[in-house]
Design brief:
By secondary structure, the chain is an alpha/beta fold. The chain folds into 3 domains: 271 residues, Ribonuclease Z/Hydroxyacylglutathione hydrolase-like (Metallo-beta-lactamase, Chain A, 4-Layer Sandwich), CATH 3.60.15.10; 148 residues, Rossmann fold (3-Layer(aba) Sandwich), CATH 3.40.50.10710; 100 residues, Ubiquitin-like (UB roll). Helix 4 packs across helix 8. The radius of gyration is 28 Å and the shape is globular. It starts with 15 loop residues before the first strand and ends with a strand. This is Ribonuclease J. Its main location: cytoplasm. It is found in: Cytoplasm.
Length: 558
């Protein structure tokens, strides 16, 4: 069903407006804007990674159009944690206005500042921690510790006279976290007593029953796999998953192996994490990967990026024998991560490629080498019962996740009409404890393609898919400007066809006849004649070769 776009009314005094620009109906691009008394507060500003039907795209950004003309009204960007899907788009927003304050925990801001440095963007930052209160414009903020697959994650409570909002960010309730930092349910309980008028809650695992397993349950499995590995071990994970890297380092050290980081982002992020004390590395365990080649194969663990099958990441290049490290028989490759929806085929291709090279590939399908960083249904039910929110807006997830989360909220007694199934651009007004959908903004995808941002359109991507799947035909014809008669051609060249160009000899008389008929009707415009050529060869190719290629006709008047 198509989304009906309609403009919201002018914001009434004493009303809090909320509109997500990303993260609803997708896993990524998380960004929500809060507006009160003419000021804007942004929570998260992340990227979405492209799928196979978006060829050539590097990243997908939230659509900044609704706030582009109001950059001076933005009082701050709160960042809940340091994953790309929550911080990756910040450099692109700061390129529009670089003095917007960035508010987040120590590790989150350190990871972001390294990214901003690469983009050559200056920034203004405010480091906060759990339990801290800050007034930013008309918004009273309180930060709450939550447990996730990266240290230092925070939920944020946003208080205005219009009502109290709690945004979880990404979270789970690991009761034995590696760093001892629990999701602060006591703070949740206190906020519940004060009254939560609107609850924006992580939906990623809402359709998974029970509770998310403990992160520390992976350690013994990693230890066992590494202990049995006869040669090199290569572990792939997200470059910001500090807890997972910590367990790999511990397992490697326990088995007398050294660890080398592979991939620019892995090296950068783990250096930051170690310097800030979030990653503990025993003396003599880390080694530069260039020196690692001198170590016996049964004494090294490589910690790599590429767990999502990204074509240019280290693991994919290894599978394609396009990396200095070439996996082979006796090597063990561990994919210690989840599958982001849309990446499944790319990951399975990498697994197949590594298996074909003789490597033993260990992944979540055949061993417990990954647990999620997101709360499952049982944990979400706890939250609803502790907080008893008046209104709920499920965020961060595909539509089935949002729907499952809404159902959980309703199971705990929250009325269906107070459970909002929104999408990107849905505008919600909160006043007197009631959240109401008042508009739907017309927003889309913003594609980063090389150095261009927002220039590539869906039509361009369609052209790329046609080129990749159906091929390309060019037709050049020179006609007499006064009579329309063909002087030279048609000259036909095809790319992406198994058939030789001579197969098109049969259609050349049809093109000549169609042009003669058009000329006889008085058509002389070269563009109109080009369309005649396009239609004629397009019909023929479809009927004869069962293809719908991209056709570029060029009619030259002489």
């Amino acid at each position: 069903m198509a989304t009906t776009v309609y403009d919201p009314p002018a914001l009434a005094p004493g009303t809090l407006r909320v509109f997500p620009l990303g993260g609803l109906g997708e896993v990524g691009r998380n960004m929500t804007v809060f507006e009160y008394e003419g000021k804007l507060l942004i929570v998260d500003c992340g990227v979405l990674f492209p799928e196979e039907h978006q060829p050539g795209v590097d990243l997908i950004l939230p659509d900044f159009t609704p706030i582009r003309g109001r950059l001076n009204d933005i009082v701050g960007i709160v960042l809940t944690h340091g994953h790309e899907d929550h911080i990756g788009a910040v450099p692109y927003l700061l390129k529009l206005k670089n003095d917007i304050p960035l508010i987040g925990s120590g590790l989150t801001l350190a990871l972001l500042e390294a990214k901003l440095k690469e983009h050559r963007v200056e920034s203004y930052t405010m480091t906060v921690k759990e339990g801290q209160h800050e007034k930013v414009g008309p918004f009273e903020l309180e930060f709450v510790a939550v447990n996730h697959s990266i240290p230092d994650a925070l939920a944020v409570s946003i208080k205005t006279p219009a009502g109290n909002v709690l945004v979880t960010g990404d979270f789970k309730m690991d009761q034995l976290p590696l760093d001892g930092r629990l999701t602060d349910l006591r703070a949740f309980g206190r906020l519940g007593e004060e009254g939560v008028d609107l609850f924006l809650v992580d939906s990623t695992n809402a359709d998974v029953p029970g509770f998310t397993p403990l992160e520390r349950s992976i350690g013994p499995v990693l230890d066992q796999v590494i202990a049995k590995a006869p040669r090199r071990v290569i572990v792939a994970s997200f470059s910001s998953h500090v807890h997972r890297v910590q367990q790999v380092i511990d397992a490697a050290a326990a088995n007398g192996r050294r660890v080398a980081f592979l991939g620019r982002s892995m090296v950068r992020n783990m250096t930051i994490a170690e310097n800030l004390g979030y990653l503990t590395v025993p003396d003599g365990v880390l080694i530069d990967y260039k020196k690692a080649r001198d170590i016996p194969d049964d004494r090294i663990v490589y910690m790599s990026t590429g767990s999502q099958g990204e074509p240019m990441a280290v693991l994919s290049r290894m599978a394609n024998l396009d990396h200095e490290i070439e996996p082979g028989p006796g090597d063990t490759v561990i994919l210690a991560s989840s599958l982001i929806p849309g990446n499944e085929n790319a990951v399975y291709r990498v697994i197949d490629g590594l298996t074909k090279l003789g490597a033993n590939v260990v992944h979540k399908g055949n061993a417990k080498v990954h647990v999620s960083g997101h709360a499952a249904a049982g944990e979400l039910l706890y939250c609803y019962n502790i907080l008893k929110p008046k209104n709920v807006l499920p965020v961060h997830g595909e539509y089935r996740h949002l729907m499952a989360n809404a159902k959980l909220a309703q199971d705990t007694g929250i009325p269906a009409e107070r459970t909002i199934l929104g999408e990107n651009g849905t505008v919600i007004d909160l006043k007197d404890g009631v959240a109401t959908v008042v508009g739907q903004l017309d927003i889309g995808f913003v594609y980063v393609d090389g150095s261009t941002v927002g220039e590539i359109t869906d039509a361009d991507l369609k052209d790329r898919r046609i080129l990749g799947e159906e091929g390309f035909i060019s037709v050049i014809v020179v006609v007499d400007a006064s009579t329309g008669r063909i002087i030279t051609g048609p000259e036909i060249h095809a790319r992406g066809f198994a058939e030789a160009d001579k197969v098109f000899d049969d259609v050349k008389p049809k093109i000549a006849a169609a042009l003669a008929e058009a000329a006889g009707s008085g058509v002389r415009d070269s563009h109109a004649l080009s369309q005649v050529v396009r239609r004629t060869i397009g019909r023929w190719v479809n009927q004869r070769l069962r293809r719908r290629p991209m056709i570029v006709p060029l009619v030259i008047e002489a």
